[in-house]
Amino acid sequence: MINNIIRSVFLIFLFFISLSAIGDDIKNETEGDRRAKGIEARADRKFIRQDFDEAMAIYETAFSHALSSGYGAALHLKVARLYLTLLDYAKAVPHYESAMAISGNLFSTADICNYLDALRFSGQRMKAISLARRYAFRDTYHSDQRYQNILHALNYEDGFLPIGIPEFTVRSLDKVNTSNSEFWVGVKAGEYFYASSKSRFHDPNKKFYHRSNYFSLAESSVYSVRNEGDIKKRMLDMIPSSLQNGPMSFSRNMTRMVVTQVYYGKSEGIGMTAQGLNTFQTRLYYSNYDQKRKGWSSFKEIFHQIEGSSYSHPYLFNNDRSLLFASDMPGGFGGYDIYVTHWDDRKGTWGESVNLGSQVNTEGDEISPSLFDDMLIFSSNGHIGFGGYDVYGITYENGHTVDGSLVHFDYPINTVHNDFSLLHIDEDRGYIVSDRKTANKDDIFYFERNISDKRKNNMLFGISEAKAVSNGSINLIRDENKSHTGPLKEALPSSRFVEHVLSLYFDFNSYMLGAESLKALEAWQKESDFSKIDTLVMEGYADEIGGEQYNQVLSEQRAVEVGNWMKDNGITAKLLMQGKGQIAADIDFSSLLSQFSQELSGKSLYQYLPLENKIRLNRDVRRVDIKAITK
């Protein structure tokens, strides 16, 4: 009896000691979090003031304290996001890894995509592939087109290269571009201008840039600038420095301009949302030119803009009566969508903002809208593409987009990096912004149609004239008597996947389709539902017999031959043809040893095979693989 009482008292004593120890742990974790949050707040203030190196050093010291798992994971993810804004991919990766190890559930699809970009742009491609495979079969990622585009980029590091001479040649404006961001080209009274940021901060969504200046591009030739003095000449000084934070727009008749302001709100801290950092918001301001006093009016908010949302990438058109812009305001399809608003003469204000709908906008981000004739040109990471932002065009008539006319521009306009803010000079020349030079941030590139390009007579920036109605004038203003109750409610585009559908085999040293391949193609065409296919990719291969350069050309010819069959047989899906060059056959040498000397190694055995044996064994690599990108 006494022993039982002693045992019970001892167990109760142990229980209270355990509670005390747990309480001390909670107290220590809470104190560690509290100390770290004070450090985090100090680093936030430094970061907002653009003392980036000092800020990041302070953030790093916060991890020396005992942090609770929840706060530790959130802080690692925040620091990873901040390193990404400085394009310091190598330093972002360890923080992504630490946050993932503590709590992978904290990651949004945007975070996974940013993590993948940090890996591939820091030279850790195999790690990126491993991470991508971990999420490839989850439903959320099947429907996230940015993630799917990154998968494509990992498979096609150089994008889908065209066969032969590309439609356009792209050149960097090396006398203009710096190690910071050059992010916009616009036109003012027939003169081209560009924007340059003096800040290391780099918004991954491309909605704004700190400490921008605007300069004359001053072209003396098609892509080079006149001299250094012209480039450094300060332009557009009528814009207050606080409003020089991103893309801007002038109306063609020079009576109105719209500019971007970075809006910080009331907080000096850097918070996080599921989409990313929420401290830096942007708003649009406008100024009108007063003909009487020959000057610009004070800048005003262009219309009421919702707190917590951003508005950017303005584009004035239709003699300053209509405005395209990008925004993540509530009620859209997700991320940044493109909207249009029109000037109301009776009210003297801009009208309701109208979402351009699911032909343009996706669950991803759409930015940098502009117009060329009757085409709306914009960039998106939510449509199928090469990776990152790509440039697209869609027919835009009478204030509406035309269903089924969306076109993705080919390489080298688009790459596996971010390509956006395309501005035409004419149908053969223009400018585009891209971060394809990874040593820099965003740079300006000049593109020009190749003179030898035979497609010139029936193509317009990659869009066929059959899809682009370019006859007559276009009324770009909606009927303003109609009432709009919010974003258009078209259904979101369905998910798209890459599927292998058919392999066709070729005779040795030939790119002609044989009877067996033609029979396979005809059977496949009869069985296929092409309404569900967006794009067909033809990948040509050659065996190792012959020179590498010769086999590269032969693989391209095989892909083109299959593509031509598709065109000739009325297949209207977009066709992408690529030569992959020579590949080695997977040969089982053990079955051949009975015919040849046992002393020969596998590698030497192939070398000593007669040519006819090599031709027979390499049959499976002389092929074209057809892949369908389905809707």
Automatic annotation (TrEMBL):
It holds the Pfam family OmpA. Its main location: membrane. PROSITE patterns: OMPA_2 (PS51123). This is OmpA family protein. Transmembrane segments: none annotated. Keywords: Membrane. Gene3D superfamilies: OmpA-like domain, Tetratricopeptide repeat domain. It is found in: Membrane. The keyword Transmembrane does not apply. Residues 493-631 form the OmpA-like domain. It comes from the Bacteria. InterPro entries: OMP_bac, OmpA-like, OmpA-like_sf, TPR-like_helical_dom_sf.
